[in-house]
Amino acid sequence: MRLVLLGAPGSGKGTQAAFLKERYGCIHVSTGDIFRENLRNKTPLGLEAEGYMSKGALVPDEVVVKMVSARLREQDAEAGFLLDGFPRTVAQAEFLDAFLQERDWPLDAVVLFAIDEEKLVQRLVNRRTCRSCGKIYNLLRAEDGFDGKKCPACDGEIYQREDDSERVIRNRLKVFGDQTAPLIAWYEKKELLRRIDVSGTPEEAFEALEAVLG
Ligand code: AMP
């Protein structure tokens, strides 16, 4: 399975990728997670990305493309991958197209996560993440045993992403509208786009996802 998950911040791409990874056994490539990990380890890549991320701006295409192509050249990508948060600009999509064509690895689909903007803001300000296992929670949908401090799955520390403050969120949504939304028409033209409604629960979104993937 080779999929692109396309959707605004907070639309649930990471949560669905975790379900999909379990179901299809392919790797999950989240560019945001890779940048955050580099930032935690204070690598040159992380330090370069930090200024853009803290403002909710996009990291320059050349940097992202180099990082993704290195990841997709690893052997485990041969069995398929879920791209989450990439591509985010037409230039990135053009790079991906050429990269996949060279390998004769056509995409199975590009899934668009459709949801109302105000709902996204509410989700994002209430989003919490586990620092150890990366599991995503939401204060609005308290899960059994989740107290907002410790991860019920691994006992790791729960934190709020720095870019999940309302001011940065508004900017991330604007960046999505300006720079990423043009990809919807771009992939529609290639007849790869599948749209799912993600305004309900994660389980409902996963059902919709499985239905469009057949
Ligand atoms: P995410 O976790 O996908 O919301 O990404 C967090 C931040 O990482 C974004 O706001 C950008 O600053 C940066 N980032 C992630 N993916 C990309 C990408 N494909 N292109 C440019 N910047 C990215």
What does this molecule look like?
This protein has nine helices and eight strands. 49% of the residues lie in helices and 16% in strands. It has a five-stranded parallel sheet with strand order 2-3-1-4-8, with helices on both faces. The protein has a single domain, classed as 3-Layer(aba) Sandwich (Rossmann fold). The chain binds adenosine monophosphate. The site of adenosine monophosphate (AMP) has 17 residues, from α2 and α3.
Question: Using DSSP, what is the number of strands?
Answer: 8
The computed structural class is: alpha/beta
CATH class: Alpha Beta
Rg from Cα: 17 Å
Keywords:
single chain; five-stranded parallel beta sheet; alpha/beta; 214 residues; Rossmann fold; three-stranded antiparallel beta sheet; 49% helix; 9 helices; globular; binds adenosine monophosphate
What topology does this entry show?
Layout: E1 2-7, H1 13-24, E2 27-30, H2 31-40, H3 44-55, H4 61-72, E3 81-84, H5 90-103, E4 109-114, H6 117-125, E5 127-130, E6 136-138, E7 158-159, H7 166-180, H8 182-189, E8 193-197, H9 202-213
Parallel strand pairs: 1-3, 1-4, 2-3, 4-8
Antiparallel strand pairs: 5-6, 5-7
Quickly describe the structure.
The protein is α/β, with parallel strands linked by helices and 214 residues long.
